[in-house]
Amino acid sequence: MTKSIFQESIVKRALLHVAVVFFVVSCSVDPKNKQHSGSTIKEVMDSVITRVYANVSPNEYPTIDDAFMLDFLTKDEKSVLATQYQYFKVNVPVTVSLMRNIDQKTIPFWLKESGFQKTKDQVKNEVYTYEIWQKDFEPGWVHLGIPGFDKHRPVYFITVGPKNISDELKITEAYPSEYSLETMKKGAFTYHDWSDLNITELPAELEGQVLFTTVRGRAREAHVEGAFRKTKFPSSNKPDQIVLTWSKDPTNSIDIQWRTDTSVKNGDVAYWKTGTNDTVFVQATTKSMEDRMLYNDRYIHRHTVHLNGLDHGSSYKYKVGSKEDDSWSKPYNFKTEADQTTDFSFIWFGDTHKDPKWAENLQKANLRHPEISFYSIAGDVVTTGLYRNEWDEFFGYEKEVFSQKPLMPVPGNHDRQDGLGAWMYYELFSLPENGPKEVHPESTYAFEYGNALFLMIDSTHPNEAQTVWIEEQLRNSKATWKFAMFHFPPYNFEEPYLDIQEAWCGIFDTYHVDMVMSGHIHYYMRSKPMNDGKVVDSFNKGTVYAVSIGTNGNHDEIGQEPYAEKRFKEGRYYQHMTIKNGILQYNTYNEAGEIVDSFEIKK
To answer: Which domain of life is it from (predicted)?
Structure first.
């Protein structure tokens, strides 16, 4: 039987029971502990980049490299960068082995200076080869520096072993504390954001040592080489990036988010029922949002308002801005869900990747289907979710479609990257917080619209709690129609997700989920109805699995899929789904506005 992604994490934790005894404090070391400098890596890099912006022309940013940085940094800044990236205490003399990927062109500036020496040995995993650098430390603090000023994603990792094999090693006060300590051996993983990339070769002397795991995203902490970016859509004192979502009941609430530059300190929404002049003002929650390497728009403000107590099935007008400055956007419209509605329609996309061609398709769909209630995107909304300029392009290209129809997305692997989470995604969308407690409050959630239940699941960060939550939601639901949306498609030609099939698809069978909507593989596939991994002869006996794409496909061939009803290896599509009089009508449109796939489910 294939080991599930959920079981895998449990197995990894079990590896902590090894011959060497070690302990990790539950919280990180205080960066201002007397054993450490008064600054953190982030504080230093924030200050350094601010100084770059003040003293270096943007034309020179592409030329900034390791040599530039070593000349530009002060002695104290170099000291922090050489010591505060990773640190911990040991109780006995130890040897620290540092595995540095051989493809990284520049050796970290501090490595030789601090006494590390390169050995003749290597460590390998299934993709990369690492050279081994070693240094002996006496009992006390061990300090290590940044991987470099480049963004070399397979960052270094370390193992620690006692110099005297009879010593009982204890590791305490480790920073950062969120990454587990494992046992170094064949089959061990090093990167939490690529946990199935396993060690295949290692010297015998490292076998059984304490392995400090990490994430590839740590390459970004001091990244400057090729790191400076410019947004095509910088903020101003005028509101933009206006987007509607729901975090509560669609019948009586709406959430409104927008952007301004930091000169606008506070935000407000003015709204009124269509056809009246009775205007209500609601103050926004305003948060500052930083992208350090976005040199023409480093800081912005994001404003969010939750409107509650609205009338069911009613049309409203609203505008966003600031009462303090008496500066407002133009008026926009939204409509609440009618009480006990059973007829509605919505549109969903697969991966959009902030593609301007996708946005053109969105605008055509918006004109073609003015009656729809909301939009959804099945993850990979942008290509690099940690770059705010990409989110600026997403909103800039969609041209305010989402200011009048809510967007209810799920995160994809490109929206959360390199083990650093999807924090920008969460800052930009106000979504329900009714998912399992063990995941981010807005990553997995549920909402009902009409007589349909929508389970919006973060498949990029799955765990057992989600499985329990999915079953609870379906078991307790009285909805006529049940849908699930998540990024990784359980059935596809390229990378079938056997763990998702094992963990979730059986639950979908038990409670008869009508459709699962996904993206990720960059092609179009709609399955025949399936139950227990097999094709069945009726939509009322099985679940339809659909994979779609808003940006273009990237496959020359798409193999064979005996369970598939319709497939396209390229093209941009959207799905228009209508529920009316107990019938689900599914239509897939291409860029030309042609229906290229359709079916009906009757209940």
So the answer is: Bacteria
